[in-house]
Write a structure and sequence with these properties.
Layout (H helix, E strand, L loop, with lengths): L1 E3 L8 E7 L17 H8 L7 H12 L20 E6 L3 H17 L5 E3 L8 E6 L4 H9 L1 H10 L4 E7 L5 E9 L4 H14 L26 H10 L10 H23 L4
Parallel strand pairs: 3-4, 3-5, 5-7
Antiparallel strand pairs: 1-2, 2-6, 6-7
């Protein structure tokens, strides 16, 4: 996935994230993550034990920076400081149901994140627009303008993307996610997890961390343990929007100890 940050007249927009993902053979469109062989096989071989250094490395590489951006500082923590409500704009009931399960799964595994679906656009601060592949670039153009849409298409050719708007305190105020619906279940779930999670703050991609879905070379299709560490660190109350790297390092030992205990408990890990 790649990050992109368009300018705004009123506020600085913090980056867009993009993914160009490969497809696997489709199954029933109502399938959930655990029912897909491609996901089940990944879960069986998933690495679940990490050192503190491995977790910290991935956190700093994804929570700070932006792989591709045009405006706005990227040397600060960016996160929601309010309940997150997700609205799905689609006529595909099956994909909407899958998205709702993704959101519920994220909420279950991130201790201090209040996230849920909402039935009204007015109540949402995350809007997920689900479109057909042939309508993707038309939708991107409507969101970000013709010039940026051409740049996105030429540079990245994404199948899905996300971006957020932050205020002067680096608090995310609104996120937009675009997902294509006429893809395999694996690709849809892989996109949905990655884009929704990145819309919450860890926007930077890294090719040097092999365990995170925020790596262009990694496809998950589910919320893996390593990325649960990243999101739980980010949404710990002691990690605040606007923090710098030194400020985060000062509180990180205590945060990480509590996050380890939570991730172990919620995943029933043996170590």
């Amino acid at each position: 996935m790649r990050a992109f940050n368009p300018p705004s007249a009123a506020l600085r927009f913090a980056l867009l994230a993009f993914a160009a993902l490969t497809s696997v053979p489709d199954t029933a469109t109502s399938a959930i993550a655990g029912e897909l062989p491609a996901i089940a096989s990944r879960q069986r071989t998933e690495k679940k034990s990490f050192t503190d250094a491995e977790i910290v490395d991935g956190f700093f590489k994804t929570a700070f920076g932006a792989e591709y951006h045009l405006a706005g500082r990227v040397d600060r923590i960016r996160k929601f400081d309010a309940p997150v409500r997700v609205f799905a704009e689609t006529d595909r009931a099956d994909r909407k149901a899958q998205l709702a399960k993704v959101v519920a799964d994220i909420g279950k595994h991130v201790q201090h994140l209040d996230i849920a679906m909402t039935t009204t656009a007015e109540a949402a601060n995350v809007r997920v627009k689900l479109v057909r592949d042939r309508d993707l670039y038309r939708t991107i153009t409507s969101f970000y303008g013709a010039e940026k849409a051409r740049e996105i298409r030429t540079s990245l050719d994404p199948q899905c993307l996300s971006g957020f708007r932050k205020n002067e305190q680096f608090e995310i105020e609104h996120s937009d996610v675009i997902l294509t619906v006429d893809v395999s279940d694996f690709t849809f779930l892989d996109c949905a997890y990655e884009e929704v999670l990145q819309s919450l703050g860890p926007i930077n991609d890294t090719s040097s961390v092999p365990w995170t879905m925020f790596n262009d070379n990694v496809s998950m299709g589910y919320f893996d343990v390593y990325d649960q560490y990243i999101l739980n660190v980010l949404y710990d109350p002691r990690i605040k929007a606007g923090m710098t790297v030194p400020e985060v390092r000062e509180v990180l030992p205590d945060v990480l100890a509590d996050v380890r205990a939570w991730v172990k408990r919620v995943n029933e890990l043996k170590e």
